[in-house]
Design brief:
It is a single chain. With 153 residues, the protein is an alpha/beta fold. It has one domain. It has five helices and eight strands; from the N terminus they run βαβαββαβββαβα. A hairpin with a 7-residue loop joins β6 and β7. The longest helix has 18 residues.
């Protein structure tokens, strides 16, 4: 039986991003050879539409470019993603880098200028707090996830 990974649905080709598009990543999709991939889009789970106004994290809040506070939706989506991870027995996740929900280690700074800052998205932060390893789609992270599960690269 393959170990399960929680994966940002947009990385698997689902058009659920803020702009109504996907960010399919072939290297992430290839993980299906060794893992059962469980897709998740916390923003959609939290009740946000696709497409939607871009959002960025400002401290503990998440705001849309037009100033609307969508923190509650992001928190609800993060909780639902965590529930899914628990139900599926997931120990690790591959999430979309820099996202206000899924970003791990580096996210957009809330100024909507493309500037980055150290930090995690709402879902990544919650998963990490629950001892679920969070990786991004970068090649180094993908190699690390294989090591995490004892696979050689």
């Amino acid at each position: 039986m393959k170990p399960k990974l929680l994966v940002s649905a947009c990385l698997l080709g689902t058009p659920c991003r803020y702009d109504g598009k996907a960010k399919k990543n072939e290297a992430v999709c290839a993980l299906a050879e060794r893992f059962e991939l469980i897709p998740v889009c916390p923003e959609v789970l939290g009740g946000l539409p696709t497409p939607r106004t871009p959002s960025e994290r400002r401290g503990e809040r998440v705001v849309m470019r037009d100033g609307r506070d969508v923190t509650a939706e992001y928190l609800r989506g993060a909780e639902k993603a965590l529930e899914l991870a628990r139900r599926e027995g997931i120990a690790a996740a591959v999430l979309k880098e820099r996202s206000p929900s899924c970003g791990s280690g580096e996210i957009y700074d809330g100024s909507f200028t493309g500037a980055l800052t150290a930090g995690d998205g709402v879902t990544a932060e919650l998963l990490k707090a629950e001892s679920i390893a969070v990786y991004s789609e970068g090649s180094r992270d993908l190699a690390d996830i294989l090591c995490h599960f004892g696979h050689s690269t």
